C-alpha cells in the first residue's frame, strides 16, 4: 500500500504560528486551524485571565465534549434509521 503524500503548511492559531503536516488537503487543515483559533478566542473572551496553556486545555476539553455529543447524536440517528427500516 502506497503511503499518501503529506501536505505541510503553516497556520496561525491564537497569535502563534504552527506547522501542520497531514494527508488531508491544505484547505481542510486551514479550516481545522481556523476553528481551533475561533474556539480559543471565544473562550478567552469569556475568561480573559486564562494563560495560553489553560486556554488550550479548556479548548480541547470543550472540543472533545462537542465531539462526544455529536457521536451520541449519530448513534441515535442510526438507531432511528434501523427502527424505521423495520
Automatic annotation (TrEMBL):
Keywords in alphabetical order: Cell cycle, Cell division, Cytoplasm, Septation
The keyword Cell division appears for this protein: yes
Stated name of the protein: Cell division protein ZapA
Predominant place of localization: cytoplasm
Subunit composition and interactions: Homodimer. Interacts with FtsZ.
Subcellular location: Cytoplasm
Annotated PANTHER family: CELL DIVISION PROTEIN ZAPA
Record's keyword annotation contains Cell cycle: yes
Pfam families: ZapA (PF05164)
Stated role: Activator of cell division through the inhibition of FtsZ GTPase activity, therefore promoting FtsZ assembly into bundles of protofilaments necessary for the formation of the division Z ring. It is recruited early at mid-cell but it is not essential for cell division.
InterPro entries: Bac_CellDiv_Activator, Cell_div_ZapA-like, Cell_div_ZapA-like_sf
Domain of life from the UniProt record: Bacteria
One GO process term, biological-process aspect: division septum assembly
Transmembrane segments: none
GO CC terms, sorted: cell division site; cell septum; cytosol
Amino acid at each position: 500500500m502506497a503511503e499518501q503524500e503529506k501536505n505541510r503548511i503553516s497556520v496561525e492559531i491564537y497569535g502563534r504560528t504552527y506547522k501542520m503536516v497531514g494527508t488531508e488537503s491544505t484547505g481542510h487543515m486551514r479550516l481545522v486551524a481556523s476553528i481551533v483559533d475561533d474556539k480559543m478566542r471565544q473562550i478567552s473572551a469569556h475568561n480573559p485571565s486564562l494563560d495560553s496553556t489553560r486556554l488550550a486545555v479548556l479548548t480541547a476539553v470543550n472540543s472533545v465534549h462537542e465531539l462526544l455529543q455529536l457521536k451520541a447524536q449519530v448513534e441515535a440517528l442510526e438507531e432511528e434509521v434501523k427502527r424505521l427500516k423495520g
